[in-house]
Design brief:
The protein contains seven helices and no strands. The protein is elongated and about 55 Å long. The chain starts with 10 loop residues before the first helix and ends with a helix.
Length: about 160
């Protein structure tokens, strides 16, 4: 059941939530540099339908921003509420899994493990969306582009794994 009285996030909660998501983005980006001489560009067979590399940065920037806003909407509903703490905790798990995928795939070049892990990530995002929806539906809606992109990324990861 959704919260009947919606609380807007304060500016500190909003900024903190967005910053947290961009810290995760920065941690993941430490291993995702894919220059022309990188392992990703020179050694892997990739499907023809893979988007160009320049697209990933802007897409992820928007997604991390939406994730931060979604988290702020949830936290604004009261951290003293158990369901808010649980939802925020599950959000934290998916954020860790999000970063871990970058390390598995790019950093440690473990494509198979990354393929399994991104499916787990997808499931945890779905659980996060469900929990967010029960507290504040708008927060769950903000994660729709994220789960859509992770669905695509999972298909891409599994495809790269099978091609290599």
């Amino acid at each position: 059941m959704a919260c009947t009285e919606y609380q807007k996030p304060s500016l500190p909660i909003l900024i903190g939530s967005v910053v947290l998501c961009f810290i995760a983005a920065a941690l993941g980006s430490l291993v995702t540099i894919t220059g022309t001489d990188s392992w990703f560009m020179t050694e892997l067979i990739k499907p023809e339908w893979q988007p160009p590399s320049y697209l990933f940065g802007p897409v992820w920037t928007v997604l991390y921003l939406l994730m931060g806003i979604a988290l702020a909407l949830i936290l604004a509903q009261g951290a003293e509420r158990r369901e808010v703490r649980v939802a925020a905790g599950v959000f934290g798990v998916q954020l860790v899994l999000n970063v871990l995928w970058s390390y598995l795939f790019f950093g440690w070049q473990m494509i198979g493990a990354a393929a399994v892990e991104i499916i787990l990530l997808w499931i945890v995002i779905g659980v996060t969306m469900y929990l967010f929806y029960r507290i504040q539906p708008a927060a769950a809606y903000l994660l729709i582009p994220y789960i859509a992109w992770v669905t695509f990324a999972a298909i891409l990861t599994v495809t790269i794994w099978t091609l290599n």
